[in-house]
Amino acid sequence: ADFDFHGEDWEWGAYKTQRVLAVGAYNNNDGLRLEKIFIQKDNATLHADGNILGPKTNLHFAVLNFPVSLVPALLQVIESSATDAIHSCRAILAPIKGILHMEGDLRGSLAKPECDIQVRLLDGAVGGIDLGRAEVVASLTSTSRFLFSANVEPVIQSGHVHVQGSIPITLFENDSLIEDEIDKESMRTKWFPTWMQEKVKDNSETVGDKKVTWERNEEGREAYLTEHFKGLNWNISDVSEVKIDADIKDGGMMLITALFPYADWLHGSADIDLQ
After folding, report:
1. DSSP symbols for 202-260
2. Cβ(111)–Cβ(171) below 8 Å
3. 84 or 21: which carries more pLDDT confidence?
4. Is 243 exposed, middle or buried (0-12, 13-18, 19+ CB in 10 A)?
5. By the 8 A CB rule, do 255 and 129 touch?
6. pTM of the predicted model as reported, rounded to 2 decimal places
């Protein structure tokens, strides 16, 4: 089945969007192929293209100019029954303000997915404290290990909060599903993971009509993992090993205490390393 539809001023319950665009095809052998997905609400836009729900997943996605305050609403649209999760999300995000820019790539298979995500918070603030930098990168590797690195810095005082970690995860309990996926993969040509090198640079209406291409290669992703997760030694970790490192320096304490209503950082210096 092929699909190509455009819409304006769409409504989903209480939520409204100015523009929706979806072009692609689906078949039982290759799954869902998305030529382009574009959704716009005010200045916030969502973009996606690639392949999912088939033997090979290769999907690029981006969320641009997205206010943090809209995240719970987006989650509720995706899963309207998860009311407890939505309330928890609202509580966690309550002290955080700003505009999210997120982009990533999804690869692998249903049994062994891989993913890379980069998130930036622009014009951000935590508990009323303006941020000079707020970035998070995260990856799910082919060895089912979740890697993350977060860097946050305040504007008014030098310092930072750096947190990085490597955590093993179990994605499926169904062994037969995993074995079936592995058998299928063994009969196919080896697929190299991909990495985006060209990025969507604006969220104007022309972006929705523009076919954006990315140059991708395995070496690019390996360099990316090495750069962002250096020091974790994730590729030589034991299967069950969990590693989390935190580095808090000077003004970073302002950001930590801003998350707690009964604590306040007055002045001074700090140099804290946690492992």
Report:
1. --SHHHHH--------HHHHHHHHHHHSTTS-GGGS-TT--EEEEEEEETHHHHHHHTS
2. yes
3. 21
4. middle
5. yes
6. 0.72
